[in-house]
Amino acid sequence: MAEETKPAEVLLTVCTTCRRADVDPEGPRPGAILLDALTEAGLPEGVAIRGVECLSACTRGCSMVLSGGADRYSYVYGDLDPAEHVADILAGAAAYAKTTDGLVPWRERPVVFRKQSIARIPPLALPEQE
Amino acid sequence: MAEETKPAEVLLTVCTTCRRADVDPEGPRPGAILLDALTEAGLPEGVAIRGVECLSACTRGCSMVLSGGADRYSYVYGDLDPAEHVADILAGAAAYAKTTDGLVPWRERPVVFRKQSIARIPPLALPEQE
């Protein structure tokens, strides 16, 4: 019997046009390199990836959004380095994919997610907090 | 005959715990003041508002997310000032609500949206861009 496979709900959205200050501006864009490196490293179960042209976080490149459907918090991360952060990004995405609300306990988040979050966006379904 | 009214799809998500450097830390939180000021000024048609406790954009307070369903880009704005930006935020939200994809032409965006965008998140439905 074939197992039912759910489509990936968690999505890494990587800006492919992002530059970094430490990289040759004429060379391949660090954002595109990050997208390729994450893809080639192998995505965790339930996690998909896409490249987009701009996340308007240009001063914080490389940048990426981690999102996961209507019930999870979304996160925007910046200052990502394709040479340093690929394994931690994938570990963080795997932990996120195991939650229902996107809230991974602080100590279980990779340092890159703890320190380089630009913003988080609450899910629509969140009850109002006052 | 009663007209059919669509529920508001465009949402302003305002961080109510945001501080600003220029404000008494013991006084009411600027984020809560911004939420109240936007609400009292009168929301444009099709725009709703909610307060949340943190957008993780604490160094850029006051902060806010502008979102509008599965087909629109979402935007995170920062450095908002309840004393300066209420009318422009509401005008920008109204223009955003009139689009189907959230992309308001650059010149029609209020300056606060042009200059104080922290990030934008593409809709899920976006075709891949490479």
General description of the model:
Two copies of one chain form a homodimer. Chain A has 130 residues and is α+β, with helices and mostly antiparallel strands. Chain A contains three helices and five strands. The first copy, chain A, has one domain: Glutaredoxin. A five-stranded mixed beta sheet of chain A has the order 2-1-3-4-5. The radius of gyration of chain A is 15 Å and the shape is globular. In chain A, 41% of the residues are buried. The mean pLDDT of chain A is 90. The interface between A and B is medium-sized, with 28 and 28 residues.
Low-confidence runs of chain A (pLDDT<50, min 5 residues)?
none
Cα Rg of chain A: 15 Å
Structural class of chain A comes to: alpha+beta
The N- to C-terminal Cα distance of chain A equals: 49 Å
- Elements of chain A, N to C (H/E): EHEEEHHE
Oligomeric state of shown chains:
homodimer
Count of alpha and pi helical runs of chain A: 3
Shape category of chain A: globular
Helix content of chain A: 10-25%
Give a brief description.
Chain A is α+β, with helices and mostly antiparallel strands and about 130 residues long. The first copy, chain A, has helices at about 30-40, 85-95, 110-115, and strands spanning about 10-15, 45-50, 65, 75, 115-120.
Give a quick set of tags describing it:
homodimer, 130 residues, alpha+beta, Glutaredoxin, 19% strand
